[in-house]
Structures are given as C-alpha cells and as structure tokens.
C-alpha cells in the first residue's frame, strides 16, 4: 500500500515536472523567435516549405474526400426532412469550425510532426546538436525555433486550403452527383456562416499549429539519442498531438460557444 | 610519481603554461560516480592524450571541459577562467576558442561539405561570400578534400567525414582542438592521414590539442603527454615512453593490451561453479 | 542555389494558395458582412418584441442591405426593446415616417430589419428614431393563436 502511494506520488511528481519543463521550453522558443524572424527569415521559409508546401498533397486529397463524404452524409440525412438545400450550410459549418482545423492538425502531426521530431532526434543522436553547441551556435535558436515557427505559420494556410478543397468536394458530390440546386447550396451557406465561425476556425488552426509543432520539436529534442529513442519520440509525437488537439478542440469550442 | 608532483606544483603557481586545469573534479551520473578527486593539467601548445579503458568516461571528461556537462564538485579552468562561472554569452565566447571533432564527425546532414565547413563562418561573421569561399577552400585543401566540396555527408566515408569535420573545427582558427576518438573504425591509411593531420595542425598553427583515444599505438606516435584514466582518477601520466616503461600493473595491462589484470576480464558475477549447479536458484 | 530557388518558389506558391483559400472562405462562404460602409449615421427604433434579432444583423430596404444593427437592449423604463442601427451615409433621403419591421430570411433563417419607405418630406438623420415599427413574428405565438382559434372553432 505504501509502495503504491509512493508510485503514485512519483509519477505525479514526474508528470508535473515534465509539464513545467514543457512550458519553459515553449517560453524559450518564444523568447528566441523575434530575433530569428528578423535575422534569419530564410531558415523559417525553408521550414514553412517543409511543413507546409510538402504537406499540401495529402491535405488536398484528404480534404476532397472529407468534403465529399460530408456532402453524401448531409444529403442522405437532410433529405429525410426535405432539407437538401441546407447541405451547403452543414458542410461549410462542419468544415470551417471543426473538421478543417482538427483533421488538418491530425494530418499535420502525422506528416510534418513526425518528420520534425525524427529529424531533430537524429540530429541529436548523431551529435549534430552538440556539434553546434561546440561551434557556439545555440541549437535551440538555430534548429528548433525555425522549425517551430515554420509549423505555426504553415498550419492556418493548410487549414484554409483543406476547408476550401473540402467545400469543393461537397460541391462536387451534392451538386454534380446528387443534383442539389447550386444557388440554394451557396445561398443557404452564406446566410448561416458568419464571420465569427471563420474566426473560430482560424483561432483553432493557430492554436493547433502551435501545439502540434511544439510537441514535435519537444519530443525530438528530448528523444533518447538512439535509434529506438528516435522511433519512440516519433510515435509519441503523433499520439500526444492527437490527444492534445482533440482535448483543446473541445475546450476552445466550449469557450467560444 | 615524482613527475606528477612536479605537475602539481606547476599548476599551483598558476603559470600560463597550463591552458586547462582540472582540480578535485567530482562528477556522477545517477548513483554512479564517474570521476572522483580528479586532477589534470593540459599544457599550451602540446598534444595531450587522454587514454583509458572504454567506459571510464573519457568522452564525459571532454564534455565537462567544454561545459556541455557541469560537474557536481571541483573546478575546471580554461586559460585561468573558471568555466562554471560563465554565463551563456561568456560560454559561447569561450567555445569559439575551441574546435571539436566528434566521434563520427557530426556533420550537419542537411548541408553539403562546403556549407558544413562554412557553417561557423556564416553564423559568427558577416564575411562576403567570396571571402568565405576562400577560407573554406583553404581549410578543405589542408585536409585534402577540396575536391569533395560539393558532396553530401551521406556520400562520405568515415575517414573523409572526419577530415571534413576537422576542417570545420579549424575554420574559426581555434586555440584548442579536441578530438574525440579520432582513430576508431578507420582503415590504416585513413588512420595514418588523421595522425599526420593532428600533428601538423598542432605544430603549424601553434594550437593545443587534446585527443581522447584508446588506440595506444597511434596515440604514442602523436602525443607529447598522456594521461591514463581509470576508476575515475588519473592512474598514470607522462610521455608515451614513460608510460610504456611504467611498472604499474594497470598501465602495463593497458599499454600492452593484456586480457586480464587489474581490469578484470570477467564482469562481476556470482561464483561460476555455484551458478552452473543452480544452487542460487533456490 | 537551384535548391534554394525551388524551396522559395514552393513556399511562395504555398502561401499564395493558403491566402487565396482564406480569402475565398471569408468572402464566399459568409453573407453577413456585405455591409462595410465607413461613413454611417445612427438611428434607433423601439420594438415590442425583437424575437432573435442580434447585433450585426443586416438592415435592408427593398432587399438591399443598407445598414447593420449595432445594439439590441431592453429599456426598463418603457418596457420594450431599443434597437440601434447604423445606415450608410449615402442613403440620406429615407423618409422619417418609414416603418421598420423585423423579418426572417427564409422559414428558419436569421432575422433582419426591413425598412419600408414612407411619404414624408423630412428624412432620417443621425439620432432620429423610427416610430412605426412591427415586432418580430414569433413562431410559437403564431402556432398558439392558430391552435386557440381552431379549437374555439371546434366548440361552436
């Protein structure tokens, strides 16, 4: 019984410590950010390319099919109430407020996040970070900050593209396939989607971008410098990002309602 | 023994002949004590070798000297400055005086050879591209790899990667060059090349070199002074010849590569016969 | 150098695409923000019941959006709802005896204020009040009335 209590105490202690270290790490990245933005924009551009441009294809393909399936489901269920015209509204609201940011964040964690953490983990395992340290170059500033900022900047754009392609997919399915009236589709959508909905989507995409990039960079930086450690860090990146994104999504939605 | 005393006394009067001084160093990782009451002096302009059986924390010692790790107790002075007293900026200023060659080269994988060598210049100076090109090609020429400037780290052999890393370590003209296991896993030709480079860099540029290695033969050819580290302490020190002639059991075992001796062949284990007969299982 | 160029081009394309996607979302999927005049004047109106009218709802005349509701508040003295809205300054010839009603776009859509022109020679200006108002039609009340009248019809 005593051992159990001690175990619980130890793991709680460890959790709180890690959580605190994580916050401090975040602050450290933020502190170094302005300087890197001013002095080394080229490095950040390269990371926007890595995190954003290279994730474009997967985002577009997934967006198309998510939008398409929303169109199908929306039509099938709304036509029970003779409300097929609202398909546009349903799809647009679902994509803008929820599915766009959430699914993009999950895909981002899987595509860009894992790439980030394995890259940083390998740099650590092959002493590249220590070598920078020895060349009097701060690896946090030189390696982590651009990657973090690249992810944060890329995310809202990825979400916007995902949402647009999703709408296009829904348009394709419901209008060209199921012959919903094109005017009704767009007009109903425009009447019910407000600027607030889009703002909610943008806030979410920004928050998810920060969280997913931060977790990827953190896991990579704290990976055990072995092949197994890097692999484990990559897995943890995806799992923890997914959990964090979904929990935060719930919290933001609850606050913004 | 007498020589060690001499070293001690020299260190105490703080003569500038000693570039790096380590006093009463204590470092432990978890419950495992790696160094205890270690004293060590590295002289300016010499090639100093730190030798010892694997697992004695030679690489750890390098990381302590460059303050990638911080000791629990003791003082490490570089050129009279206690490095544990430095703040981040001061530490980075200090590190610019060091060049370090990592075990596997530690080249940055997303840059080619040229950019790897140019990296410290681009980070710390605002030299023009032409000047950077000039400096980098000079350094690459010195290690004989000017022709490989456009290659990528993944295309290099182990020996080449180490030479590129050496060029990179030298590009800022450091005062102290540190080699972490520079001879491991090299074929005899590459090994010879590196040995020659180490000596040449040291003498031509007047820098101080520190080599961590357990290759007795190679070290003997380049080092002016060697320290043999065992059990968290300096077990012996002196020129290679002195070490060869030493009559301490441990030094003899290490220098002549004997399988059994003070460093036991067998890792600590229960009695062989008893374990085989399975008596301890009960 | 070639590599840097392709990175730059890729990033440029990506950001442009992202921005146009954002632009598309903000302009094409929303309808509420078509009104964006900078020069406006303020008018108020009192309603017995505003239904679910919210601030930022459009004010329209003959189906064209000419203004936006800025606030909806309950007045404890007169016990009715005071709605303040702004109208684009270029529509300065709206008769001051026009009447305002709260209408619903579509059967279940959002509510807005519709202005119906009157015949007066004086016009609405900053600070004036619309006196003729018609409250929102509350669906529940309507159904209630319908039920009452049909059940009373049964009795006879």
Word description of this protein:
The complex is a heterotrimer of chains A (257), B (282) and C (156). Chain A is 88% helix and 0% strand. The relative contact order of chain A is 0.16. Chain A is mostly helical and 257 residues long. Chain A is built from nine helices and no strands. Chain A has helices spanning 2-39, 41-51, 56-78, 87-125, 128-134, 139-177, 182-192, 195-221, 227-256. Chain A has one domain. Chain B folds into two domains: 2-97 and 175-190 and 202-281, P-loop containing nucleotide triphosphate hydrolases (Rossmann fold); 108-173, no CATH class. Chain B has helices spanning 2-12, 58-65, 88-95, 113-124, 129-142, 158-170, 188-205, 216-222, 240-245, 249-256, 272-276; strands at residues 18-29, 32-43, 47-51, 73-78, 81-82, 98-101, 176-180, 208-212, 225-230, 233-238. In chain B, the strands form two sheets. A six-stranded mixed beta sheet of chain B has the order 6-7-8-3-9-10, sandwiched between helices. In chain B, strands 2-1-4-5 form a four-stranded antiparallel beta sheet, covered by helices on one side. The radius of gyration of chain B is 21 Å and the shape is globular. Chain C is of the alpha/beta class and 156 residues long. Chain C folds into two domains: 1-30; 40-144, no CATH class. Chain C is built from two helices and eight strands; from the N terminus they run αββββββββα. An eight-stranded mixed beta sheet of chain C has the order 7-1-4-3-2-6-5-8, with no helix packed on it. The model of chain C has no long low-confidence stretch (mean pLDDT 82). The chains are: A mainly alpha (257), B alpha/beta (282), C alpha/beta (156). Chains in contact: A-B, A-C.
How would you summarize the topology of this molecule?
The complex is a heterotrimer of chains A (about 260), B (about 280) and C (about 160).
Chain A: H1 2-39, H2 41-51, H3 56-78, H4 87-125, H5 128-134, H6 139-177, H7 182-192, H8 195-221, H9 227-256
Chain B: H1 2-12, E1 18-29, E2 32-43, E3 47-51, H2 58-65, E4 73-78, E5 81-82, H3 88-95, E6 98-101, H4 113-124, H5 129-142, H6 158-170, E7 176-180, H7 188-205, E8 208-212, H8 216-222, E9 225-230, E10 233-238, H9 240-245, H10 249-256, H11 272-276
Parallel strand pairs in B: 3-8, 3-9, 6-7, 7-8
Antiparallel strand pairs in B: 1-2, 1-4, 4-5, 9-10
Helix pairs in contact in B: 4-5, 4-6, 5-6, 7-8
Chain C: H1 2-28, E1 40-47, E2 58-61, E3 64-75, E4 80-88, E5 99-104, E6 111-116, E7 129-130, E8 132-134, H2 139-155
Parallel strand pairs in C: 1-7, 2-6, 5-8
Antiparallel strand pairs in C: 1-4, 2-3, 3-4, 5-6
